[in-house]
Write a structure and sequence with these properties.
The complex is a heterodimer. By secondary structure, chain A is mostly helical. Chain A is built from 24 helices and two strands. Chain A has a domain of about 375 residues: Sodium/glucose cotransporter (Up-down Bundle), CATH 1.20.1730.10. Chain A starts with 7 loop residues before the first helix and ends in a 13-residue tail after the last helix. At the A-B interface, α6, α11, α12 and α14 of A face α1, β1, β2 and α3 of B.
Chain lengths: ~625, ~90
Amino acid sequence: MGMQWEGKSFVENLPKIYGVYTGGFIAFFFLMAFFETLGMGADTIGILFVAFTIVIYAFIGILSRTMAVEAYYVAGRSVPPVFNGMATAADWMSGASFVAMAGGIFIAGHSYMAFIVGWTGGYILVATLMAPYLRKFGCYTVPDFIGTRYGGKLARFCAIVVLVVASFTYVTAQITATGTIAARAFQIPFEVGVWLGLAGILVCSMLGGMRAVTWTQVAQYIVLIFAYLIPIFWMSGTQGFGWLPQFMYGPAVERIMELEPIIGVGTAATESVPGLRILTALHATPKEGALAAWQFVTLVACMMIGTASLPHILMRYFTTPSVRAARNSVAWSLFFIFLLYFSAPALATFSKLQMIDPHLATSIIGKSIDEVMALTWIQKWGAIGLLAVKDGNMDGILQINEFFINPDIIVLATPEIAGLPYVISGLVAAGGMAAAMSTADGLLLAMANALSHDLYYKIIDPKAETRKRLLTARILLLVIGAGGALVASMKLTGILGAVAWAFCFAMSGLFFPLVLGVWWKRANRPGAIAGMVGGLAIGWWYLLAVRNPEAWYGIAKPWIGLDHLRFGIVGIVASLVCMVVVTLLTKAPDEETQRMVDEVRVPSGDTIIPSKA
Amino acid sequence: MTLDIAKREAHWHRTRNLMIGHLIVWFIFAFGVHWFAAPLNNISFLGWPLGYYFSAQGSLIVFVVQLFMFNKQQHAIDVQFGVAEQED
């Protein structure tokens, strides 16, 4: 098939191609809605939604197969900013963002908002400090930058290690999410769902590398943003909050704050249900004291600096045609991410108000237990153990501390609470799948590319021919994917824990070597190596120490509230100190390196690493 | 190496100042306003408690607008010093 994937006519046709695609997806949605009115069951709708979208991604993935290095590693450097923005947004918003974020806000209240701020503001760092300069460099991977800027195989190798540690931590969480959704949609065991999810992920990236991942991610973004926003608009419209609820839900927040003391949010539960929680955190009121504020801002800092250090995000900006396009695509990325993130708190607010406001027909708190137990959504989610009602004080009335829920189901259950048709639930499942798959693809590709390009080609066998390099890249993709699925099927950590750790690992090892590589001419090889090794090692040690207070690691309790979600703060300080001290104690980089840094700082002119066809 | 050193330095100086300016704004909306979320919540902004509003929406809008502005300003600097890329 002689499809043209680069060049002017392809770029000009992109809006049309994705316009048709979006139209097709909407048509499919209405077709399903129509089938529902004919009596098609919820399960069939769910299966069709997930299967239909995966087939489309696979189709794009197979169509964009390539054997060219530039296309495989950086999509031929031809992705226009707006589309790269969408691809980055899909790459960025993981299964956790899609499925767990609104639920997290629902259950943890204000302290969870740190993720919203952190996962958006990081792009300011990406745009001002990194993306344009890395694009000017012309590297294929993040370790490629480290290896060329600082020189030497050891520096490159350290960068590969940090990249793999951070990305692998992250990818297991994504494969877990695809497994969970696939298992639910197709009604198969989780262990099988994980491998099925992996097959879907690999078919998007194996044949076409970055090019295939780019164009499937754009398609996945469109699905996930529709899936997230449509239920919110619909619910809010039917409940009388207006059709643009993101700008109107302030009064709903105030209403929740008013109701909280009345219904007794914060009362401890008298019973407990494993895996489920009751609502005790206040919705919009921050916890009191300087320590709580400190914990909020340190979590924000970890997520932001982690954003600017995660290789699967940075490498997306290597695919633009120019430095200016790289900058613009960071802005578009943030815009597309913003669309989801500023909607998540609205969703959490509505779904909470629906449950607790006695003036709303959907409310359950304060109703009689019998009445609540008769609701379909309570029965359905209760049957699979994701929510529970326990009448602790035996008064026959449901109190706030008698309602147990797994917060991850908020996004999935809210349409049902509001009484929306099943077709919405199918849409949401497809959206969650798109979010988890696209992130998993980006992560797997980041790792396989670093190992094939930097470890195999640049360190082990610099004479390897193109065919062999690309074959290695694909085999690695399979092996790493299988490894991730294997770890995922062992169910080691919760989704959120693993995600926050990935950010902390990345910032501990990579942030300063990357930033100072551009912004500090004096930074040299020994300094960068010390920064990467010192940051990662000390960060990792601290993580182990706070996770195992009984063990030998040397500290009994976290320093000033820096728990395991925030260990990146310790790692990055160590990284900075190591890098600066070692750099100043050793020789300044040679003339040629300094000139290279000068060249990186201006957009015009050739890339530092010459491009090859 | 067609650029002379003085021009290069002036360009980098302006670029750096722009970066610092944007990071100051970023710092205020990433950390400053959230540190004071509790007192800010006493102020009502279009129906929202202000401290909550910043974390749910306000900071995010600032970041998005800021990035598009940054691109414009950086491009203007690049053009002024003649180091912008040739557009095809």
